[in-house]
Amino acid sequence: MDNIHIRRECANDYYAVEELNREAFWSRVWGDRQEICDEHLLVHKLRDVASFIPELDLVAEIDGKIVGHIMYSKSKVIDENGKEHEMLTFGPLAVLPEFQGYGIGKKLMLHSFEEARRLGFRAIIIFGHPDYYPRVGFRRAEEFGITTSDGKTFDPFMALELYPGALDGVRGKYYIDPVYEHMTQEEALEFDKRFPLKEAFKPVPIELLLNRLKPEAKEALESLNIKSLQAVTTKSERVLRALPGICDEAIEAIRAVMKDNGWSWGER
């Protein structure tokens, strides 16, 4: 799409942006229980925290309609000597379901990367889809010697240098604003009353995929204790290929089942 206009969010956009995030993430629940998303609540809360960066709170419009949104906050890496290195994180990044697949999310990211460079930031660290975000330059955070605050690392934990060598000499544990971690389902349900009534999304059980796999591949996937198809998106193709019993045929079956249920998965 060539008619995408990107601009900063303003106060008059708040409700529309929160509703956009609600629509974009409604079917993106991670567990095996019927719950509602909390991304619209997170957007609402982020605007009021000290780490929020208004200059990087952006919307994408098509013919005056807001169809996409990205927002940023400051985060940090603390090294073994206690020195803090300021970082960025973005999220949520949302596009209305009917406008997904047209590159709007990518345009928002690339535009925001340029703005972040202009503002003098060095790097962005996120938790995201491990097969998607490398397409715009993200690498596994472990390649830079960066772990989560509890010393862990995994494929969805990624970093992007905003200029070559930006993370040279930066090693340590990553800390994000607590607002990302301190939301409950009860709080999300209460906030959701501000919006039109919507039935909670019921996660698609992993058995739908397991039944398509041969015994050795099924056993391998079961070893990860994944309960829903959505949770499969947290595992990269690289990780699944490394499991005993997962062959090319199994990878193609996983890719097909995910696609049939509305999720892009894998390195293609």
Describe this structure in words.
The protein is 28% helix and 20% strand. Helix 1 packs antiparallel against helix 2. Strands 1, 2, 3, 4, 7 and 9 form a 6-stranded mixed sheet that branches. Strands 5-8-6 form a 3-stranded antiparallel sheet, with no helix packed on it. It folds into 2 domains: 4-180, Aminopeptidase (3-Layer(aba) Sandwich), CATH 3.40.630; 207-260. With 268 residues, it is α+β, with helices and mostly antiparallel strands. Strand 2 and strand 3 (65-78) form a beta hairpin. The radius of gyration is 19 Å and the shape is globular.
Key terms:
268 residues; alpha+beta; Aminopeptidase; 2 domains; 6-stranded mixed sheet; 9 helices; 9 strands; globular
CATH superfamily of the largest domain: Gcn5-related N-acetyltransferase (GNAT)
Total helical elements: 9
The total number of structural domains is 2
Characterize the largest beta sheet: strand count, sense, and whether it forms a barrel. Answer: 6 strands, mixed
The unreliable regions are: none
- Count of DSSP E strands? 9
CATH fold name of the largest domain, please? Aminopeptidase
- Bin the helical content: 25-40%
Shape: globular
Strand content: 15-25%
How far the N terminus sits from the C terminus, by CA atoms, comes to: 21 Å
Q: How does CATH name the architecture of the largest domain?
A: 3-Layer(aba) Sandwich
Structural category? alpha+beta
Average pLDDT, rounded to a whole number, is 94
Tell me the radius of gyration. Answer: 19 Å
